[in-house]
Amino acid sequence: MAESSRPTRPSLGQMRSSSFLQDHQQYKPMAPINQINQNIGEVLANQVDDLALNANPIKPDPERVTESGVIHNIFNHHENPLPSGTAQIVATIYYKSATPVHPHYHPDASPDPTAEIPAPTVPEGSAPTEDMDKFPREPPAPEPEPLDHLYGPYVSQMCLTNFLQILESLPTPYQRMNTSHRCLDREEHPRVVEVTFSPPPNPDYLSFPDLRKHESIWRFEREWNVEVVLQQESVFRRHKRLAVFDMDSTLIDNECIDEIAKFIGVEKQVSDITERAMNGELDFSASLRERVGLLTGVPADVFEKLKSVLKIAKGARELCRALKTLGYTLAVVSGGFQPLAEWLAAQLGIDIAVANHLEIDEATQTLTGKLVPSYPIIDAAQKRTLLKSFAAERNIPIAQTMAVGDGANDLLMLHAAGLGVAWRAKSKVQLEAPTRINGESLVDVLYLLGMDNDDIAELTSQ
Questions:
Q1: Distance separating alpha carbons of residues 59 and 73, to the nearest angstrom
Q2: Alpha-carbon span 177 to 173, nearest angstrom
Q3: Choice among 248, 258, 410, 444 that is catalytic
Q4: pLDDT tens track of the chain, all 462 residues?
Q5: Where is the catalytic site (predicted)?
Q6: 23 an active-site residue?
Q7: Is 248 an annotated catalytic residue?
Q8: How far, in Å, CA of 131 to CA of 121, rounded?
Q9: Distance from CA of residue 185 to its chain's centroid?
Q10: Distance in angstroms (rounded) separating the CA atoms of residues 426 and 437
């Protein structure tokens, strides 16, 4: 046989294309379509194999967290449906826009690159005291990396994804979990996001109170500069009928007894006692008598003068207006004084006002430095008693009650209510309260009831 008639052997160079990447890329581009010579049937027949093997069915992640309308699950939801009636937990995530962990989003963005690193501080609500001098010898543990500075000063997509990962890792033994979310204030760059997940962790391994205080959630809050409020989902979470508020440093920004003390120059002594009492370092009733004793001789018309000094807290009017529109009974229960509690109730449309009564010398029209003995002292136990009596008198289940306060004398009331919120509270109170929020406006409380911005706007416009 002639040499020229032999078949040509394939060479390695003939088996390869000119591009190694083109041969090995995972997702190859579709072959060009000859629109003149091919009809749609031929096109589909030629491309079906390429579509099955090479097309990526997963769309790119959205650039921001938006209303999902779907159930998130790392598994196929239809293969593992949860039985109807499965318990759910609602997590309301607030971004703390008013209290950034660091003064600048990134060290490179600092206007003064030579500025010294801020001194170490104790995170608010993480220890009984924030005074470094009173802290144990060892310094506090290093703060987690502030990830919100990298991914955005809001509840970002990465923040939400991290939270869902933490939820998946909490239950013991492991169980599959379904979650969904919705943005409560705005779709783009939301500050408040509500996440619903089920089933909750097995209470034999992780109780609901322990879940609220779980270290993984605490660290998540520190990393992303957020606060997480956990509630067990039920119809009573969204539909309450009684709201009881503390007055000083809650509905108003002032401490009434401190304002009175300014008139006679004993503000420092009274303020020190007030701070220790609100932190739970002193018995409230004993400290109240001690502070009231310092007010001996103050003119009785001091309450009229104080009304122009008191500053109603941001969002208090909107919160009370929204709740009244929904038919709530509102009460203010204060360790302050009755004349000011009644004035505040009139300002905010509150139905009930209960506070301490100061004794007045009728002859001189001055304060005697004593409390009226026929009225009980409004201390922690009395606040809890009043909450329960208000509910009982109106046939309101305790699950349909809400309490908001900031001091140690509010803790019993907060634990007794269906929803107890420590609002910008003292450190010890934040540690022990069922839930806590440190926002800028009391309107944030409405998000815990499942309302969004549209709901709040409609309620407050009435």
A1: 16
A2: 12
A3: 248
A4: 555 566 666 554 554 555 555 555 555 555 555 555 556 566 556 655 554 444 444 454 555 565 555 555 554 444 556 777 889 999 999 999 876 555 444 445 555 555 565 565 666 666 666 666 666 666 556 666 778 878 888 999 999 999 999 988 887 777 778 889 999 999 999 999 999 999 988 888 899 999 999 999 999 999 999 999 999 999 999 999 999 999 999 999 998 888 888 877 777 777 777 777 777 677 888 888 888 888 888 888 889 988 989 999 999 999 999 999 999 999 999 999 999 999 999 999 999 999 999 999 999 999 998 999 999 999 999 999 999 999 999 999 999 999 999 999 999 999 999 999 999 998 889 999 999 999 999 999 999 999 999 999 999 997
A5: 246, 248
A6: no
A7: yes
A8: 8
A9: 13
A10: 11
Residue with tokens 């890329």: 25
| Domains of the chain, first to last | 86-108+122-233 (3.30.70), 242-460 (3.40.50.1000)
Residue type, 360: I
Cβ 154 vs Cβ 189: under 8 Å: yes
Question: What are the tokens at 289?
Answer: 């008598």
- Write down the catalytic residue from 49, 131, 133, 246: 246
Residue with tokens 């509690």: 341
Across the strands, what pairs with 422?
Answer: 405, 436
Query: What residues pair up with 179 in beta bridges, in sequence order?
Result: 72, 197
Q: How far apart are CA 334 and CA 357, in angstroms?
A: 11
